[in-house]
Design brief:
119 residues; mainly alpha
């Protein structure tokens, strides 16, 4: 399950970079198949992450970093929604991409470091 989760996370970041490139360079939205695949990949990331979270909880492992990752993931999704909205202004698009990119960087850092005590 860990490998599926990591693969889907990489695909989420690749799709985010592709959509950001389209919005910033050509000022157009992604094709419909990209938007649909984005939803499917988000779902697989959430399901595989929930499965691994239950496994961590069953052995009483520290999960504060997982909660921080979930908060950052929600922030990245909400910023991406605003950034890739057709009615968003160019300034809103740039800000949304910046916030979502920072959230994805934070998620990757937490995934690699897995700090034992965040709070």
């Amino acid at each position: 399950m860990k490998h599926l989760h990591m693969l889907m996370a990489v695909l989420v970041i690749v799709l985010f970079l592709y959509q950001s490139y389209l919005v910033l360079s050509a000022n157009k939205s992604a094709p419909r198949v990209i938007k649909i695949s984005n939803h499917i990949i988000y779902t697989l990331v959430l399901l595989s992450g929930a499965w691994m979270l239950f496994q961590l909880m069953s052995v009483n492992a520290p999960i504060q970093w997982v909660i921080a990752k979930m908060v950052l993931f929600v922030a990245a999704i909400s910023a991406s929604i605003k950034a890739f909205n057709n009615s968003a202004t160019p300034n809103q698009r740039k800000t949304g991409i910046l916030i979502a990119g920072a959230a994805y960087v934070g998620i990757v850092v937490l995934a690699f470091t897995k700090p034992g005590n965040l709070f």
